[in-house]
Each structure stands twice: as C-alpha cells, then as structure tokens.
Task: inverse folding
C-alpha cells in the first residue's frame, strides 16, 4: 500500500518560496493569484495491508522525521 | 582540553574547524565518524558545517536522528558543551537541543559573505574571551540560516539572555540590511538554557588565521580551551 | 534483433562511410548495442574528429608537466612532492535545456575527472556566457546556472573561487557553462586509466544506473516504440551528496594498492570508460551487465551501456584487494559491484541475460575512429572602427559611469556570493581579484587560478583573440604574484562543418599555440565543444583558457585594491589607445568593429616578469591587469576594492582622452608604489615602458579636470546592475 504525505509550512510561518512563486505567476499574467504556499510531497511504499495500521505508522514517521513540528504541518493519504 | 568533531558523510567544514581547534588547543581534536556512537569522553563536542546527509528533506534533519546524535544529546544533557556551526546549528535545532528552526534564507539563494555580528553576552564558555557588545567580522555560507521561533520562544531567548550573537552593521546597529538571511530579530546564534550548547550560523573557524584576512573567530576557540582545559 | 537500417545508422549520427568502416572491421552487421557503442565513441564529443588534427599544434610539454592531454585531467608538478591536477569542461547544451541540473552535473563531472586521478579537489572556477540581458530566457538561465553551480560545489565542500561571466546576443540560443576544477595529489600517486592485468576485476562504484541522458535521436527509433513515454531520455540530475561520498571513498581506496586503473563514467558512461581503459591498456574487457546496479527495471544492454547517470566510476582492481575495496565503499554506503574482468582478447565483450550483446575489437574501434580535415577559411577582417566614433565620444566621467554599470563590467558579487568560496579554509585571494589564490593546505605555498578569454576579440580576429586569451590568463596569474605554469582549454565554437567556423577554430588554435610557446605555458588538458549553433547562428568563438600558477609564499599574494593615500599609480606596458573591438567602442560608441588589440608576446613576457619581480621584492602595494575597459576602468576597480580614490593626470598630448583612458592595449598592468623613481629605474634597466598616471587618495576619482566622481556613486553603479537585473521580474529560483 502506498502513503502520500504532504508537508507544508504552518500558517503564519513566512514562506518566501511561495511568495516568489506568487510573484512570478503575476508577472506571467496569471491574474487573481492570492497567497501561494509551497511544500513537499512524499510517496512511501509500505508493506502493509491494514489502512489504519499504515496510517499510524506514517503518522509516526511524520512526527519523527518527515516534518519539523516547529515550522511544518503534514497531511497523510493512504492509497491502495 | 579534549574535543571531538562529529563527522557526518557530507560534513565539509570538519577539517576547517579541526584546524582552528588545533591552533588553540595545541593538539588535534578527535574526529568521530557518524556511526561511532560510542566515542571517548571529551570536554567539547563540535558539530561542523556542511551538508551532513546531503541536507535532503530538511537541513540537518537526518543527521539529528543518527545514532551518534543520540549520544551527543545524552552528553549535552549531562552538561558537556556542544558547539554547532552552520549545519551543526541546524542539526541542534532539529535534534531539539536548541529551540526554533532554520528555514530557507529570505533571499532564497545561498549566501557566502563576511557579515558583522555583535556579541550579546560573554557569560558562556564560548564567548568568555570576547567583550560584551564587541563587533566581529565573520563569514556566513548557508542556504538555510533564517532563524525562526514562535514569539514566546523569542521572548524567552531574549529574557534569559540566550541570544549569543546578532547580525549588525559594522557600527553595531541592528538593521534589516545587516541581516543576510531574514533571521528573526537578526539572530545569528543562540544558547540552550544552561548556555552549554551554542548554535550559530557564521563560521568562526574561517576567520581564525591572519593569513586568511582576519582572526575575529579565534577568541571563541581560545576561550573554550581556557575554560575547559 | 532488428535489422540495422540506414535510417537507424543516420539517427545514431554516423555517416554511411563511418558505418561501413565499423562494419568492415567487425566483419558482420552490428547489434543495436554495438551500433550505440560506436555511435558514442565516434561522436564529436568522444572522438574529437573535427578538432584532433588542430589540437596537435598546441604545446603540451614542459619539465614540470607530469601528464598532458589524453587522461581525465592534466597534471603538473608544483614541487615538494605535490602535483596539481586540473581541467575545464563544458556542459553547454544540458545547461541551456535545464540550467540548474545542467550546470550542477557539469560541476560534478569535472570534479570527478580530477579526483579520478587521485587528487582532492581544492578549488572550482567557472566561465559563463549568456545571451543578451534583454532576451527573455537570459535571466532564468543565469539564475539556474548560478544556483546549480553553487548547489553542487557548496555541498561537495570545494570552494568556488572565481571565474568570469559575459553577456552577448550571440549566446541567446547557446549559453556556455565551462567548469574548471583544480585538485591536489601526491606527485608519485597519480592514478591513470590504462587497464592492465588479465584476470583483474572490473568494478563499478557509485550511484545506480538509470535511463539518464541516453541519446535522444536513438530513443525515438522503432526499437523503443512500445512505451516511448516511459523510456524518454531524461535530464541528468546531479546528486552532490553521493558524489561527496564517492570522492571520500575513492580517495580512501587510493591510499591502498587496490586500484590498477580508474576512469569516471561521464559522457557515454560505461561505454567510453570501458573502451578507454581497455584501449589504453591494450587489453580486452568483459562486462556482465546483469551485475550493474540499476535504478530502473527492464533496462536493455543498449541503455545500460549508453546511460549517462552521474556519480559513477569504473575501476580495475587487484582481485585479492576486492574485499578491502568493498568494505570501504560499504562504509560510505555506495554501490560496489564486480561487473567484469580484464582479458587478453583485446575485445570488449558485453553480456546480459545469457546473451552476448556486444563483441567488438577495441583497437580498431579507437584507431579507426574518423579524423576529419574539415575545410576551413580564414576569417575576414572585421569592419573598420567608424570614423566618427571619437568625434561623438561623451565626456570621460560619463563614459566611465556607463561602463562600470554595463553588463560585462558590472560587479559579479551577486554570482560569487552564491558560491561557498571559503570552505576548506585556504582561500587567500577571494573572488573579484585578477586571479584567485588558494593556499596549499598545511604549507605557505599558494596556487593562483584564473579563467580568461575575450570572445569579441576572437570574433574580430581569431588568431589575435587566441593569443590574447592565453596572454591574459598568464597576465592575471602574474598580477597576483604567481609564476604561471600551465593551461587547460575549453574550445567552444559553432558548427565545424562550416568552413568559416572551422576557420575560427584553426585561427584561435594558432594564436593560442604561439602564445603558449612564447610564454612557456603548456596546455595539459582540455575539452572541445562544437555545434554551439541555433538556427544557423553560431556563438562567438570562445576558447576559454583556464590556467594555474604558483606562489612560493602566500604572503606575496598581491591584490588589486589601493592600500593607502599618496601612492603613485604607474602603468606598466605601452599605452597606444587601441579602441578596436573595445568595450568602450561597443558600449559607448555602439559599434562592434575594428581589429582587436595586438599582443606582442615578447613585450608581454618582459612586462610580466618585471611585475612579478616587483611583487616578490615588495616594491608595489597593489597590482591590477589592464583589460576590458582599459586604464580608467582598471583604476576604478582598484579604487573601489581599496575604498581609496585617485587623481589622474590628463591624457598625454596626441592621444584622444577616450583612447588613452579606455583603449585596450595589451600587456599592461597598473601598480601603486611609494617609490616611483626606483620603479622607473628598474623598468629602464628591464626595457619595460612605464608611466606615472596619477596618485591615490581621497574618496573620489578625479579624471582629467572633470568633476570628481564619488566612489560611493561609482560603487553603487558597479554593484547594482546584476542584482537589479536579476530581481526584475524574477521567477522562483530552482533550488533543488
């Protein structure tokens, strides 16, 4: 089974890369672009058949390594 | 004094800091490979600059969770002084020995230049040989030196006098222009609560030799030798 | 196995004659893998088929040369049992396609070339050419290339200490990214690529092999039609972390006696590394591709042999040392696989899944590689300098302001602050000087490094431009006090099948060769990059010269900045006011015209030896080579570097002020001294023309009675162009 993890900066933490992307989109003529936040996307192949166990394991991975709780939030998706 | 320099696979300032330490100590420090968690007792542990594990994921993230760091954390909690320079500072925050985090530079680019920093306190084994308020010229070289902490943490750091260095103008003024990376409150280096752990982004080991154009970094190593001998 | 059709041969870039020659010594139709192997071995990049005949003109020997061209890098003896290993190489096309990864992998490749020979890289340089700043792609390319160079070199922990960067519309469709690495090795522990010892193990180390960079035209052939999308050639991605491990592991292994031969897998990967090792050693080599560590499933022998995945090495190892070697690579967590052995058959035999995918005699594959005597014509004389250029000349101070803020003269700080130029703790002369200076670790000896070429001179007159590129490199090394030792060249040109382009190549080689001989400055390594053309428009001929020299003691290292008030400013070498092909003419008078300034190699040598003597005797306190922009730009650069102004005398009678102050006569240095009389006396004895042109002091530059220009203003003009340009409408800089 596969886990998909999105790691993003917490609300309120300045995201200069996101700002630069927003600025660049503006100069490329994309109107109406508001706040842009960038982050990381991580795919993990898991030897696991139970969704709940898989999620619990990935939660642990996020807390221990994949995200830095001081500045980052994460979201987990479990796919077949 | 006995010192150990922890060497991660892509550390690259390990030799530089060993040279600076040796110049002050009169003997070579122990170079400890990252897999050797069981290293001899020392008076000082140094986490050098570089890219530890490629700085993939986040700078210092994987190094902070390596076996040798578990041992460094144990010893730091027992009071063994730990100095983290640049990537070493990033590792210390990732390992939880220092609060906050080091984010991508506000300018987004890697920055390598001499900056001026002000000594905020001399009450530590690291800064005892400097004068309070002294302005040092020391290089930075990093991509992720933008110090971040929440307001409460910043207030605590200020209140406890745990800010070691701030980026300043050559005349000592704290300005945005003097800040090379967008760090909160121009913070260049901080201590833990006991001031036995110091993390800083500038590289004192790079200006500790008059032939390289300056010696403002030398007093940190001389002070450590004096305090820990 | 599909038939080898003429179309397939053509897609592999082989002419029918080349194919017939290959089939001739093979004695049968080749397999697809064999066709792939010969196509890369006989490509321009690997075979130098257009350039070889001319490269032979370059002098490559001197008593201090340990190894000249033909190995991974050149090697020179610097005394005390130490050798310097260095080379420059291009990564032009990949950097245009994907600037961050293209430049990064270029840096990674050149560092591998150097540590393959047993040297620890101690400094990186780069020579960059971009298109018109106004061209829509330029900003993105500059941002990506600079970030890529920094991203790779910074992680490796090798300081990037200098280089050069120009802008010209001729590079709009073909930027140049030339990266140079300088390494240090024990002089008696240099590693070479000649395989030897029948039965010795062929070992693959480093990253796994993927489908990176496999020749695009070939991939489009019917053979790969099934899942074309998945097999599309991919941009090579650099992994500096793995390369750092590879560097440390190789250097650790090199301290043992395990390695017989070693070759990095760069362009054409496993193919060129195995063929070169076998060819140089006069042996055969057998490869079992089932043992090659791969990153993707279902890779064919063709793909494995042609992959350009980065951070890989091929070694020949004594079998009894294989386990020792494996332990070292395990320590560094790198792949280590015995993938073959050395044989006495003289053949390259490649097996996979029980079948022979290739079986080629190595000697003819190398010996019969085509060499072409391409037709060439001398470049026509450049258009004359417009007769009214001087009549329309603006005031000297106005011209200086414009020049100092022009793209080719503005400060490059924005670039080199993105490079860690101090790691390793031995950078004595930081970027921004005439040449970078690094200390040989643990000694007081210094190594000076520079890269130079003036493409607009080469365009106007290739022979003179070739001469000038070498002379300027020699001069820049001299200006920091070094004794110039040797050269690496990176020849960047357009399509050699056009006689006028081939003529540029021939002309530049002739000029370089003459200058290298006159200055005892052998060429010990190099790289040729041809076909830098888009829609029939070629780049300016750009024979980039990388060069090194030594200083017996770094305390001699001279810098450009003025040191104190009241020193005399002296120009060494003759000033005639040559404005042809000058920056003044282009930027101020708007004309790219006229012949380049001539280089008098005898005068060059005399002036340089004189200046070096002054530096070593402590007679001068600042020194700067006079180059782009002429005398006044050189003075301005010295003033800005030292934060001390100057007052200059008017132009001598008979010379137009613009010609005096902005002419680009060669063989000149500006120095400052407290004792101009002594300097004049020594110059007279040496037969070198010198002239006092002013004195240092104050906080502004005062020229020829014009209103003073404040250094603060001039500094702002000089420092703000590049950051301002890059900040305007900048997109996100790719950083990973």
Result:
């Amino acid at each position: 089974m596969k886990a998909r993890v999105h790691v993003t900066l917490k609300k309120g933490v300045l995201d200069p890369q996101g700002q630069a992307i927003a600025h660049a989109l503006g100069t490329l003529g994309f109107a109406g672009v508001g706040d842009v936040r960038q982050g990381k996307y991580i795919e993990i192949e898991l030897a696991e058949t139970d969704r709940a166990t898989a999620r619990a394991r990935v939660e642990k991975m996020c807390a221990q390594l994949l995200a830095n709780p001081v500045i980052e939030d994460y979201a987990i998706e479990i796919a077949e | 004094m006995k010192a150990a320099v922890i060497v991660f696979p892509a550390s690259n300032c390990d030799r530089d800091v060993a040279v600076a330490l040796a110049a002050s100590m009169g003997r070579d420090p122990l170079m400890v490979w990252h897999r050797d968690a069981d290293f001899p007792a020392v008076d000082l542990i140094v986490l050098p600059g570089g890219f530890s594990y490629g700085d993939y994921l986040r700078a210092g993230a994987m190094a902070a969770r390596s076996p040798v760091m578990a041992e460094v954390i144990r010893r730091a909690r027992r009071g063994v002084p730990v100095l983290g320079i640049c990537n070493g500072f990033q590792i210390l925050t990732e390992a939880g020995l220092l609060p906050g985090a080091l984010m991508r530079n506000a300018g987004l680019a890697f920055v390598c230049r001499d900056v001026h920093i002000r000594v905020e306190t001399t009450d530590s084994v690291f800064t005892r040989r400097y004068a309070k308020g002294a302005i040092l010229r020391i290089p930075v070289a990093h991509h992720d030196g933008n110090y971040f902490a929440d307001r409460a943490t910043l207030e605590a750091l200020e209140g406890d006098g745990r800010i070691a260095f701030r980026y300043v103008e050559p005349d000592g003024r704290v300005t945005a222009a003097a800040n090379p990376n967008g760090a909160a409150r121009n913070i260049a280096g901080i201590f833990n609560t006991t001031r036995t752990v110091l993390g800083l982004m500038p590289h004192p080991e790079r200006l500790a030799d008059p032939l390289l154009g300056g010696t403002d970094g030398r007093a940190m190593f001389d002070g450590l030798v004096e305090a820990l001998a | 196995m599909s038939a080898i059709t003429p179309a397939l041969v053509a897609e592999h870039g082989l002419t029918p004659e080349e194919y017939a020659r290959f089939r001739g010594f093979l004695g049968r139709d080749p397999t697809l893998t064999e066709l792939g192997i010969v196509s890369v071995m006989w490509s321009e990049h690997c075979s130098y088929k257009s350039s070889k005949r001319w490269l032979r003109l370059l002098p490559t020997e001197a008593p201090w040369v340990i190894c000249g061209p033909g190995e991974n890098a050149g090697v020179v003896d610097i005394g005390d049992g130490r050798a310097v290993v260095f080379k420059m190489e291009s990564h032009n096309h990949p950097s245009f396609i994907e600037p961050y990864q293209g430049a990064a992998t270029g840096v990674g490749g050149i560092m591998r070339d150097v540590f393959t020979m047993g040297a620890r890289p101690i400094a990186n340089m780069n020579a960059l050419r971009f298109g018109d700043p106004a061209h829509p792609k330029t900003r993105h390319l500059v941002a990506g290339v600079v970030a890529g160079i920094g991203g790779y070199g910074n992680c490796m922990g090798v300081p990037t200490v200098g280089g050069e960067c120009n802008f010209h519309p001729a590079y709009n469709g073909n930027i140049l990214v030339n990266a140079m690495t300088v390494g240090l090795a024990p002089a008696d522990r240099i590693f070479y690529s000649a395989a030897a010892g029948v039965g010795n193990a062929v070992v693959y180390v480093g990253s796994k092999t993927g489908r990176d960079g496999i020749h695009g035209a070939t991939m489009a052939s019917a053979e790969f039609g099934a899942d074309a999308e998945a097999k599309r050639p991919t941009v090579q991605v650099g992994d500096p972390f793995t390369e750092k491990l590879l560097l440390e592991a190789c250097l650790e292994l090199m301290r043992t006696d395990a390695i017989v031969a070693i070759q990095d897998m760069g362009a054409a990967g496993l193919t060129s590394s195995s063929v070169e090792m076998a060819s140089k050693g006069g042996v055969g080599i057998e490869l079992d591709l089932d043992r090659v560590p791969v990153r993707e499933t279902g890779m064919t022998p063709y793909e494995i042999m042609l992959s350009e995945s980065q951070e890989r090495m091929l070694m020949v190892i004594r079998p009894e040392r294989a386990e020792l070697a494996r332990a070292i690579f395990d320590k560094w967590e790198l792949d280590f696989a015995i993938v073959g052995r050395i044989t006495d058959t003289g053949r390259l035999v490649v097996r996979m899944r029980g079948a022979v995918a290739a079986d080629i005699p190595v000697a003819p594959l190398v010996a019969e590689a085509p060499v072409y005597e391409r037709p060439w014509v001398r470049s026509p004389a450049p258009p004359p300098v417009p007769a009214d250029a001087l009549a329309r000349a603006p005031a000297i101070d106005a011209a200086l302001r414009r020049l100092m803020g022009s793209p080719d003269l503005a400060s490059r700080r924005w670039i080199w602050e993105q490079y860690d130029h101090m790691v390793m703790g031995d950078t004595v002369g930081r970027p921004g000087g005439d040449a970078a200076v690094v200390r040989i670790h643990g000694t007081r000896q210094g190594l000076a490094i520079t890269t130079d070429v003036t493409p607009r001179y080469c365009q106007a007159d290739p022979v003179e431009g070739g001469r000038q590129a070498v002379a300027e490199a020699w001069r820049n090394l001299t200006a920091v006090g070094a004794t110039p030792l040797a050269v690496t060249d990176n020849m960047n040109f357009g399509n050699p099948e056009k006689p006028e382009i081939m003529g540029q190549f021939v002309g530049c080689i002739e000029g370089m060769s003459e200058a290298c001989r006159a200055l005892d400055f052998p060429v010990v390594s190099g790289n040729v990059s041809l076909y830098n053309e888009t829609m029939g428009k070629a780049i300016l001929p750009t024979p980039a010269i990388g060069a090194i020299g030594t200083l017996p003691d770094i305390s001699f290292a001279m810098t450009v900045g003025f040191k104190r008030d009241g020193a005399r400013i002296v120009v060494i070498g003759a000033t005639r006011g040559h404005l042809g092909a000058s920056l003044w003419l282009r930027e101020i008078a708007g004309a790219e015209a006229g012949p380049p300034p001539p280089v008098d190699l005898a005068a060059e040598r005399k002036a340089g030896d004189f200046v070096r003597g002054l530096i070593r005797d402590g007679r001068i306190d600042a020194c700067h080579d006079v180059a782009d922009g002429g005398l006044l730009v050189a003075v301005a650069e010295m003033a800005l570097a030292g934060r001390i102004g100057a007052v200059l005398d008017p132009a001598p009678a008979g010379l137009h002020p613009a010609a005096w102050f902005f002419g680009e006569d060669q063989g000149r240095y500006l120095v400052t001294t407290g004792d101009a009389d002594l300097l004049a006396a020594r110059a007279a004895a040496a037969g070198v023309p010198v002239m006092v042109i002013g004195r240092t002091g104050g906080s502004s530059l005062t020229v020829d009675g014009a209103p003073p220009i404040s250094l603060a203003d001039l500094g702002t003009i000089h420092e703000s162009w590049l950051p301002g340009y890059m900040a305007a409408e900048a997109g996100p800089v790719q950083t990973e």
Remarks:
- The interface with chain C takes residues 17, 20-21, 23-24, 27-28 of chain A (CB under 8 Å).
- The first helix of chain A runs from residue 16 to 27.
- DSSP finds two helices and three strands in chain A.
- The helical segments of chain A are 16-27, 51-66.
